[in-house]
Amino acid sequence: MKAYLEKITKKQDLTMLEMEEAARKMFLEMTSDIEIGAFLTGLRVKGETVDEITGMVHVIREKSFTLPEMIPDIIDNCGTGGDGSKSFNISTTAAFVLAGAGIAVAKHGNRSISSKTGSADVLEELGVSLEMTVEQMQYILKENGIAFLFAPYVHPALKRVMQVRKALKIPTLFNLIGPLTNPVPLTTQLLGIYRRDMLDHMAQVLNQLGRKRAVVLNGAGYMDEASLAGENHLVILENGERRHVILRPADVGMSEYSNDLIVGGDARKNAEILHDVLDGKTGVHRDTVLLNAGIGIYAHGKANSINEGIELAKVSIDSGKAKQKLEHLIAYSNQLAREK
């Protein structure tokens, strides 16, 4: 690692091939925790480039249990976290709305790292079994149109690096790339990030990773979700072209609400909110989910506009199809867990 450490400490960027080689060395036993920590810190201080982010993602996916693309046009709507908003599990709730709208969703996620309740925490509270093999995840995705891919199970090689990351207690490249390492070869993606300055960078990374369409967003209040509190900054990627958009609630016929109104709680509280939304309860939680699901449906290409996406999201909830996707995920996951 010495040569790469020396280069980044001089604020010199690594090529994609250099980054891939350095990333592979991070997984070797001979590489010390200190070297890993120094490398991640050095990248953070220098500023990570598009090629460096892409190179790291290539290696992580190389060392993961990869699921083949069994059905076309699979999407993920996982965000980076790290925005400090303590919101309820917006993207997890929206994932079921996407699935209810007929879109295949490979929901990649983990337990809470920076927030109070991660996607895995709330799904476990809802009754979803996380103890799935890769083959079982693949089966559920094919049969149900939505599956949860629990990060520790599909990325076992990352365990040591994650321990170093936590010990550093500062943001690193790994605070950004979680959603990029989905083991399914996605064709479309909705990516929420907590850093507005990285919107265009991440859109370029998604393009290099082969996404045909994607939306990268940073919400009002610098959330990693779309928010009804004001201006949402979006970069829309389509066939290699990037377009920057500012989206306000009024642009899609919605009222403005403070982010204080979407603060969640522990796993039980957030599971209640998720149930309420899928059961059709109106209010700020539903509207926030509709906004995010609408953007996701548009990112996928099933809708020609975000407004149309929101209308399809309403149908998904009000028809009961979104709720059915949750119920089937609970049933399938527990059945397969018992058969292990």
UniProtKB/TrEMBL annotation:
The keyword Transcription does not apply. GO terms for cellular component: cytosol. It catalyses: N-(5-phospho-beta-D-ribosyl)anthranilate + diphosphate = 5-phospho-alpha-D-ribose 1-diphosphate + anthranilate. Anthranilate 1 binds at G79, N110. Residues 73-322 form the Glycosyl transferase family domain. Binds 2 magnesium ions per monomer. Pfam families: Glycos_trans_3N, Glycos_transf_3. Anthranilate 2 binds at R165. Residues 3-63 form the Glycosyl transferase family 3 N-terminal domain. 5-phospho-alpha-D-ribose 1-diphosphate binds at residues 79, 82-83, 87, 89-92, 107-115, 119. The keyword Transcription regulation does not apply. Signal peptide: none annotated. It comes from the Bacteria. In the C-terminal section; belongs to the anthranilate phosphoribosyltransferase family. Belongs to the anthranilate phosphoribosyltransferase family. This is Anthranilate phosphoribosyltransferase. It comes from Paraliobacillus ryukyuensis. The gene is trpD.
